[in-house]
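Problem 12. The chain below contains 255 residues. Write out its predicted structure in token notation.
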Amino acid sequence: MGIIFALIIALVIIVVAVGAIQQHKEKQEKENRLKASKQKAIIDESEELIVNLANLPSNPTVINILNRRSLNAARAMKEILPDSKSIRNKVGELEARLNASEDLAGAHSEKEEKFVLPDNEQQLVSILQCIKRLRATLKHEQAKGALDAQTFTHEDKKLDAIQLQIGVESLLKRGNMAYQKEMLGSARQYFEKAMQTLSAHPIQTEYIANKKAEVTSQLEEITNALKSTNAKDAAKKAKDQEDDLDMLFQPKKKW
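Solution.
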């Protein structure tokens, strides 16, 4: 009986141990899937940003940074799930893509392309969102040591300049439209907002200096137009009052 009792206890211990090991294994697999999904999200975001870069001036350096970010995430996934054939294939694909983007970045001229604002407002909003996400991504890569400070600063300044240009040019476009419709008050508000945006920027570039001069000229033109309009309104009002007085004091007709 003692031997049977001992065997039962041993069996119970084995069952409990096997259950605990299985639970630990399932928990580990769940944690690994969660870690892998986070890396997958990084790859998806990087690839989406690369697609959206088509709406901005050519920038192989940023594409190179994003490709490296994707590759690092894929390699992390490979460590988490080493038996996954699809992940191994993805690593190989991204290594080839990174090599190609590095060659392109090395051959790319530093001559900056002029950014032309699209007329579609929805596309402008999409571009602004892309720039904000790019800047946040570059900052994150620099913070974790995947991007050197000099490259980060250089690329962030370029993206910041485009972001400023979109904001200023959009205000000027609205201001000119209002001016053409003789909505002088609204036009002045748009141009004043553009001037505030330009003046508040921490880095005063040649673009900002040129735009300040342009906005100043437009504001002076609006001010003169408002003075002329006010003078005409005042003259008309005085004429109307004079006509009213003439009507009041003219000789009454006899019937």
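Discussion. The mean pLDDT is 84. Students who got a different answer should revisit the alignment rule from Section 12.3.
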